[in-house]
């Protein structure tokens, strides 16, 4: 299936759509409750914006963020694009922090927060799925994504691919002194 049409105005909006958030959302490194002793890094703003831009997220979309990290993706999707969003994570504390952050941004009513395992999450309503997981978890989720998502649904992953499933597009975002890959797949027809 072809990529959605990206008009010039939509591309420009995507390129600048989070500029005001740079001062509001901090890039932080926080303990990862999934793996004690390990830290997770907040998603750099440029990467979050690129992920949403690649998925061409707009008001009619439902964005699923599996493993929400700092929640920026769902908050930006709801605030800047007017999209609905679902934040899925196993850590209740992290979800509570993200929900509080979403309330502060005035978008908590557009985001559902689900404390559950990714494999147990019904994802069929998603029009875009955001992944910032390991390659191993991406590969575990791949059959579920292909089985449950409608053809044409966009999947975007930061850093990690899906093995032999070649992305429709790969973008590189310069952040933290390195080029970070962002992959886009389109769920094929059945």
Number of helices: 5
- Which stretches are low in confidence, meaning pLDDT under 50 for 5 or more residues running? 1-39
Strand order of the largest sheet: 5-4-3-6-7-9-8
- Main β-sheet description: 7 strands, mixed
Roughly what is the average pLDDT, rounded to an integer?
Answer: 82
Distance between the termini: 11 Å
Identify the overall geometry.
globular
CATH class: Alpha Beta
Overall domain count: 1
User: Approximately how much helix is present in the residues?
Assistant: 25-40%
Query: How many E-type strands?
Result: 9
Rg is 15 Å
Q: So, CATH architecture?
A: 3-Layer(aba) Sandwich
The chain-level structural class is alpha/beta
Proportion in β-strands:
15-25%
The CATH topology turns out to be: Rossmann fold
Element-by-element helix/strand order: HEEHEHEHEEHEEE
CATH homologous superfamily (4th level) name: Vaccinia Virus protein VP39
What's the gist of this structure?
By secondary structure, this protein is an alpha/beta fold. It is built from five helices and nine strands; from the N terminus they run αββαβαβαββαβββ. The chain has a single domain, classed as 3-Layer(aba) Sandwich (Rossmann fold).
Q: Could you walk me through the main structural features you see in this protein, from its secondary elements to its overall organization?
A:
With 190 residues, the chain is of the alpha/beta class. It has a single domain (27-186), classed as Rossmann fold (3-Layer(aba) Sandwich). The chain has five helices and nine strands; from the N terminus they run H-E-E-H-E-H-E-H-E-E-H-E-E-E. The strands form two sheets. It has a seven-stranded mixed sheet with strand order 5-4-3-6-7-9-8, covered by helices on one side. Strands 1-2 form a two-stranded antiparallel sheet. Helix 2 (45-54) packs across helix 3. Residues 1-39 have low confidence and may be disordered.
